[in-house]
Predict the structure of Phenylalanine--tRNA ligase alpha subunit.
Amino acid sequence: MREKLEALRDEALEKVKQAEDKKALQEVRVAYLGKKGPITEVLRGMGKLSAEERPVIGQMANDVRDVIKEQVDSKESALEEAAIEAQLASESIDVTLPGRPVQAGSTHPLTAVVEEVEDAFIGLGFSVAEGPEIETDYYNFEALNLPKDHPARDMQDSFYFTEELLLRTHTSPVQARTMERYQGKGPVKVICPGKVFRRDDDDATHSHQFMQIEGLYVDENVRMSDLKGVLETFAKSFFGAEREIRLRPSFFPFTEPSVEVDVSCGMCGGHGCRICKHSGWIEVLGAGMVHPRVLEMSGFDSTKYSGFAFGMGVERLAMLKYDIDDIRHFYTNDVRFLAQFKRN
């Protein structure tokens, strides 16, 4: 029995030395120290030994088991340490290598235009107002002098949720809501940037979703000359100090009189070219004096207060400022396009 235990010990220790990974080592542990291993069988056969041999063989079997366990645990620690060393070696960092450059993002051109327009009008005493993109029919149309049977509604084909809820077709509802909050007491001086939605076929110059910035100034003795002065100051700030504007008669239900505003062509200096269709002027926005009915519906006394309003498309401004020929460039997320507008 002693010879058998010594042979098991030597055999097990040799296999421990040969184990190259934790899986092989675990197999040695189970084979020699498990419940079905040879050492356990020796201990189970102790009853067949004489009273004198039992304590001697039992002690020897325990010693053999302890030696094997100790060697297995020691080899397992050595394997773990070697694995850690190998991992550290493979993941080592050469601190002398040059760093990888981080690509900085850029401001989206539409965001840049909105911020520039806001800065220009804030400098003129305007504040920025916002409102919901899902609007009621009342604020989107009726409060702006567009009753339910008004033919001008056909000019703004809309996305309706119900008969009374729709995606706003312009940011003018923000103006109506703002005037209501002032409860008939001026002055009101705000610009309203935001997304608007209309049922339109997307092409190079049209989109079902686009951005507008509208402005409103209501106070006593506000005149058309004030409107022209504000818009001329903005045009020179945004397009260049040499640019001029002109007002052409037009029609909008919520302003009377109404005008279209053109800016002199920056490409030809107003002499006429392909960009301005040889007219010397480029249309940029619509404006006019706030209709007395719109003032009354928002709680203002139209005999005491007057005001002007204007609205411009952000994409239109960006396309003119940066000479962009397709509105879809703004929404395709092409990094090559966006990278052109990085700020220093």
